[in-house]
Amino acid sequence: QERLVESGGGWGNPGGSLRLSCAASGFTINSYYMSWHRQAPGKGPEWLSTINTGGGVTRYADSVKGRFTVSRDNAKNTVYLQMNSLKPEDTALYYCARVSKALGGDDYEYDLWGQGTQVTVSS
Hints:
By secondary structure, this protein is mainly β. Helix content is 0%, strand content 56%. It is built from no helices and eleven strands. Strands 2, 4, 5, 6, 9, 10 and 11 form a seven-stranded mixed β-sheet that branches. A hairpin with a 5-residue loop joins β4 and β5 (45-51). The chain is globular and about 40 Å long. It starts with a strand and ends with a strand.
């Protein structure tokens, strides 16, 4: 069974850091672009970042550019999201997804989603 399982969420202080992980099972990520998303309370889903198969090309939403860094370890079948300079508005459920098709620009189609890990930023 193909699965994505996120971990690493929790409480963070404003200005602090958290590192999220997305562990894949049932398939190998090295053939896929992977992405991170979030959904804040009362808001719609927001795409955050996508990383290509080799990890050399990354894309970010303006809201997290310069603060968040996506990376991957294909040997560990895991994708990461390093989140620095956290803000209260980063509070959300964070989840990863497998890209099934690149549509151009920052538009993608996805065919597998994780359940998410909650991040709360508060002093």
